[in-house]
Specification:
By secondary structure, this protein is of the alpha/beta class. It has nine helices and twelve strands. Helix 1 packs parallel to helix 2, helix 3 runs parallel beside helix 5 and helix 6 runs parallel beside helix 7. The radius of gyration is 20 Å and the shape is globular.
């Protein structure tokens, strides 16, 4: 991994996410790029019929640069304090005006970003993932995995990652991505085949995925299946019981989670969830 993009709006949650990720991923020795999107000179309607410019936004560009610089200094201190080999990644920052999703896509392409980090606005990170407009913009425009970190998450010791898969062939990309990270961060990876009780598995896809998992022949990889009516609830219980630090999901474009989890089930099951989420695009990682 060469570059991690950390998105921030300078909120407490966003700063927590950046600092948490810097600690957890320091052994990747990847450079860090901080990025803030601002809206400069917004035009708002008035009762008089004419537009006016909100003065405070005139200074957003300078404010963005200054606060990004401060956060970069804080991350440098964190990484320097934790570094044992004297290798410290480069930490830089950029800012831009406009749509967060489109800007993120451009920054990823221009800087060959391998991972995006963003903070969730609530303790229910999957609820924010599905219903948070900004987060969904980032996910939909990102060609690389997105790590969403809730406010109270602690990744000081990344020991275990659980990948939930519906056994689509595109999920092989997610498995490869995580096993690549595993070699550098030395966490245990548990791959979980999740399916609704009324679904019939495709034996061809299932065999292909199992053969791929077996061919990796890498230590610290386990596999199991979850089948039932309330798969989200069972998956969350599993992550709690097996001590997972991150839950990884595969994002199939135009069919989030391949239609596996419906909205009402997610809202009910993920109340007060504090687990960081890594969303991996099915098309490209």
């Amino acid at each position: 991994m060469k570059m991690i993009l950390m998105l921030t709006d300078f909120s407490i949650n966003a700063n927590h996410a950046a600092k948490t990720a810097a600690k957890a991923l320091r052994n990747l020795n990847a450079d860090i790029l901080l990025y803030n999107t601002y809206y400069d000179h917004p035009i708002l309607p008035t009762y008089a019929g004419g537009p006016w410019v909100v003065e405070e936004f005139v200074f957003r560009k300078d404010e963005s640069a200054a606060r990004l610089g401060q956060l970069a200094i804080q991350l440098r201190h964190i990484i320097a304090d934790l570094s044992t080999e004297g290798v410290e990644p480069k930490i830089d920052y950029q800012f831009g005006e406009g749509s967060l999703g489109r800007n993120t896509a451009a920054v990823i392409q221009e800087n060959n970003v391998d991972l995006v980090v963003i903070g969730s606005s609530t303790d229910s990170s999957l609820d924010h993932l599905i219903f948070g407009r900004d987060t969904m913009q980032v996910i939909d425009h990102s060609s690389c995995p997105v790590l969403i970190i809730p406010p109270r998450a602690d990744l000081a010791r990344l020991k275990k990652v659980t990948l939930a898969t519906a056994f689509e062939l595109a999920d092989i990309n997610a498995i490869n991505y995580l096993t690549g990270l595993q070699k550098q961060l030395h966490f245990q990876l548990e791959i979980v085949h999740v399916s609704a009780i009324e679904e019939e598995d495709d034996p061809v896809k299932e065999k292909a995925l199992l053969n791929h998992i077996d061919a990796i022949k890498q230590d610290n990889i386990t596999f199991q299946e979850i089948r039932g009516k309330d798969v989200i609830k069972r998956l969350n219980r599993l992550c709690k019981d097996n001590g997972s630090d991150i839950l990884a999901l595969v994002h199939h474009q135009n069919s989030f989670l391949s239609g596996l989890f419906d909205k009402s089930t997610t809202v009910a099951a993920l109340d007060n969830q504090h687990l960081p989420l890594m969303v991996i695009p099915a098309e490209r990682v």
